Amino acid sequence: MAYLQVRNATKTFAGGMTALRGVSLDVRRGEFFTLLGPSGCGKTTLLRAIAGFNPLTSGTIAVDGTDLTSVPPHKRDIGMVFQDYAVFPHLSVFDNVAFGLKPRKVPAAEVARRVPEALEAVRLAALADRLPAAMSGGQQQRIGLARAMVINPRLLLMDEPLSNLDAKLRIELREEIRDIQQKVGIATIYVTHDQEEALAISDRICVMSNGHVEQVGSPEAIYGDPQTLFVARFVGTLNELERGQALTDLLRRLELDRADGPGINWAIRPEDMRLVPPGGAREAGAATLEGTVSKCTYLGREAHLHLRTDAGDLIVHVVNPSRVAIPAAGTNVAVALLRGALMGFDAEGRRVAASGAA
Ligand SMILES: Nc1ncnc2c1ncn2[C@@H]1O[C@H](COP(=O)(O)OP(=O)(O)OP(=O)(O)O)[C@@H](O)[C@H]1O
Ligand SMILES: [Mg+2]
Predict the structure, then answer these.
(1) pLDDT tens profile 90-113
(2) Which residues have a beta carbon within 5 Å of ligand 2, which is an ion?
């Protein structure tokens, strides 16, 4: 059985705003589980409901087989880390972390043992006596993490803990959070709207939109095998092909025409297309589309080529552009598209089986 079970969670706020519309999900023991979705999709509302800060309108939440509905927040044994660091400026790092143990009436000797342990885990042991004011955002957020973990929670909830940090620190700290989580083995629900962050640290990702779950899966499944158009658009860059004769021909050449139909949207990732010499040899399972380069953005490790084709404007990623010749704007080029890389979505945005013609 799942460690955390959320079943049919709905939440309508007093003003009539519905933030959760029947959310069901399972989190496994020890899993790093990420809620990913655009602003306002209900991530924080769900996290706060799990922590007990705002009760659901309907639905249930259970941890390790115990229904939490009537358990008050301080008895849920859930650690939470927030976006703002929420450290007390007048308390030392040690006391900030010990604060988490106060309402639990932990004996002094145990506080003296557990706080240094938690500080050790987040690599702040040497700074235990310092006041947080003189510390960096990354260090302050690690105090928050130590305070959440010192209670030995059954579940760790983190709501965009890195969003106030600069890009470089965010990458460092996300690796650190992942390492600590692995070492402690605690089931963690992590909220972010940064797709790269979600892909980098999660065992599984739950993509949400407008108060419901779009898809739950491994980072590879979410990025490489999105089940809805929303997921495909939200995670990564998506080229959506325009309907017309060029697309019809392309689908026929890829033997995907039987999976096509009115209202089907076809799309492909920028890295799933390859520049090929125009009129060059055909590859099995691939078809080419001709176009003109309208713009090229050089980004160091890759370049993004903007192409104008008869099937719409496309972005193609070229890896290591310092080592390969990149066609200039105005050049006529051809790109090869692999059959397996083309994704179709029906009018409701659900993925259609491309194997229809296989
Ligand atoms: N206390 C509240 N009263 C009324 N509406 C609320 C309340 N809290 C949140 N909402 C609304 O519920 C919806 C979901 O909000 P929520 O904070 O869960 O989104 P989120 O996914 O965490 O977004 P963000 O990425 O911006 O943090 C939003 O439309 C929000 O305005
Ligand atoms: Mg939020």
Answers:
(1) 999 999 999 988 888 899 999 999
(2) 44
For ligand 1, atom 29, the nearest C-alpha belongs to 40
Q: How many domains does the chain have?
A: 2
Q: Characterize the bridge pairing of strands 18-27 and 66-67.
A: unpaired
293 lies in the same domain as 222? no
Cα–Cα distances in angstroms (integers) from residue 348 to residues 72, 233, 288, 290, 344, in the given order: 40, 14, 28, 30, 11
pTM: 0.92
Ligand that comes closest to the CA of residue 46: 1
Rounded to the nearest angstrom, the distance between the alpha carbon of 45 and the centre of ligand 1 is 6
Q: Which of 17-21, 86-90, 275-279 is most confident?
A: 17-21
Cβ atoms within 10 A of the Cβ of 309, count? Answer: 20
Pocket test of ligand 1: the residue of 20, 44, 160 to mutate, having most ligand atoms within 8 Å of its CB, is: 44
